[in-house]
């Protein structure tokens, strides 16, 4: 039984409607298969061993096989649709982040022209000291934007820019230490963004929910690095310590300590990193929690000697 993913109307977003249609299609087709199996059992129990009974059994089996094959095909199509919906959502999120970065860069360009006019006017007025002070003030903003453009992946740059703005809006600080291009063709941009976005969001939630001493603000630090063998990353926050029992289950699907959480964010992160041949781990103490991991440059089989990557990411 097929459902047209565009035929359901309502006020829900298109992705939600598509997911519901695919899930309904899977459910109904599973019911068809179950009903067919039940029919075979019933027919086999009701009929005797005559020739007509055997013909009836064969006919029933043939019909159920045809229906079952169609149901299995529809289930496969529905699963493909769910996968495409997920990828579309990720691409739309990446596009939105790129749009945000583009607006930021245009605003920076506009401000830069205004700053040049101010500096030029101060120099004309023979106020070199004021001009230097003004340049020192705007230099920090220019460095901030420059630091977000260090990778060779526009989607990652856009994500970082969006998270810096989000952190500032929440009264937190997102510190950046980026020394990697992250341009591996075997590591798609949406996979990188999925990992970093989940880790940064969780770190911001933890840091902002904690009580900090006077003068200390919620802080998250993102580190992106590389060496000849791997790309490595870490996300650190100054939130509360994660208990050891929670750390043991933190990457399990559905496990969460949040009242409104679904417990899938860190599971997705773990599955993505492992799927790329890497590892991820968590180390937590009071006021210092860090998620660190690595992805090898080549998809080689991991050996037992992989702890140095995690240690290196944590040190960075």
Using brief descriptors, characterize the structure shown.
316 residues, alpha+beta, Heat Shock Protein 90, 2 domains, 5-stranded mixed sheet, 8 helices, 5 strands, disordered N terminus
Question: What is the gist of this entry?
Answer:
The protein has helices at residues 14-46, 51-124, 128-147, 154-169, 189-209, 244-249, 265-275, 307-315; strands spanning 173-178, 219-226, 230-237, 279-285, 288-296. The chain has 316 residues and is α+β, with helices and mostly antiparallel strands. Strands 1-2-3-5-4 form a 5-stranded mixed sheet, with helices on both faces.
Helix and strand topology:
Elements: H1 14-46, H2 51-124, H3 128-147, H4 154-169, E1 173-178, H5 189-209, E2 219-226, E3 230-237, H6 244-249, H7 265-275, E4 279-285, E5 288-296, H8 307-315
